[in-house]
Amino acid sequence: MLKRLDLKNLGPAPMLNAEFGERLNLLTGDNGLGKTFLLDVAWWALTGSWANQAAWPDPQRVGLPEIAFEVTGKNGLPGERITGAFSRTDQRWQMSMLDTPSDTLAIYARVDEGFSVWDPVKKHLKGSNKSGVPYNPLNFTQQSLWDGLEKSYDIRVDGTIFDYPRGSRVACNGLIRDWVDWRSKSTSDKTSAYESLQSVLAKLSPDPHTERIEPGEPVRVSVDDVREIPTINLPYGSTPIIYASAGMKRILGLAYLLVWTWYEHQQACHILGKQPVDNIVILIDELEGHLHPKWQRSILPSVLEVANILSNEIETQIIATTHSALIPASVEPQFDDKRDRVFIFDVEDNEVKLIQFDWAKFGEASSWLTSPVFGLHSDRSRESERVLEAGYAYMRGENMEEYPGLQTREEIHRELVRVVPGDDPFMVEWDYFIKKRERHMRKS
Q: pTM for this one?
């Protein structure tokens, strides 16, 4: 598990520090302040490689760039502090230890619709001789996730690179083939994987009771594609997964990779004679991406529970970014301030800051929007917000120069009628104010 991350002279600010919760971590803040960047660095700390573009230091910034982090060791014991320095000569980041420190499974659901997977039991794998290159994480595009991923290897001898004699290896059969293969239940392992997939899909459904995702019968959909394509059964009918919506495809991909990562980890442990790990880190960029609000309200509580489907002994740490107020609202019943954290990227004095938010319940998503986590003045449209501010200022007798076009009662009333519902509480207050003023003027 990732315990702490400290960045110096790297990214959007001279210094960023985060002490993560052992279970759930939500990163919020405006676009462009560094949420995705922090996930990318967290992935590097866990795996020693970059899932996206490497974090290149700004050569104009004074001071040496540094990444320092701590991971939780085995049995939950604190691990040592590890630093990463950027070699300008080699143009790459180097850790202060020869081996990657993480002994945890890791999955990164990237914002580009791709995924990355890290399995620590494979990190010592080489090519066909002792000079082979080490294993690296698997980086999936959406297409390779569905259709399969081949991974090429090379052999490095005395600085010379040779192609691996047998060419590339199949690193992943892909969602489509594995889904159908697991469904055949030809072995106990595949039976277990398929049952886990069914359970994970049910848990990640928009509503497990009324809109449950259930695997259906595989079908052929094209004369020039000989594969059997899995289908999903929903209340409104059966759909081949290749025709599913963007939101549904992302959930299917996440469900598949959770099951596949654990299944392949068990297979690798069996071959290598090792014990399976007992923890998994899940990084998710824009958790709510492509999801309807009713799904946004259920997705994070579901992900928190889903690892237990794979094994009762797995501890899960989630680090996720979000722009949706429904996400923190959805986990109010499950939030544990001893194990969970919320972080806000903000700008103070023209400098980006990462602030740990002191947890509080706000109830409705609209209240979360106006909380310090999202920082809106109101949950209304900008036009409604502006005219209400002008209306309140007018009723308080303030100077109206800062409200061009809304400086008189008539201008404010005309805009109120245009953008604010007639039964809005403010309209009642405004109507009472106008009538009271008119009565006062008649008496005068």
A: 0.89
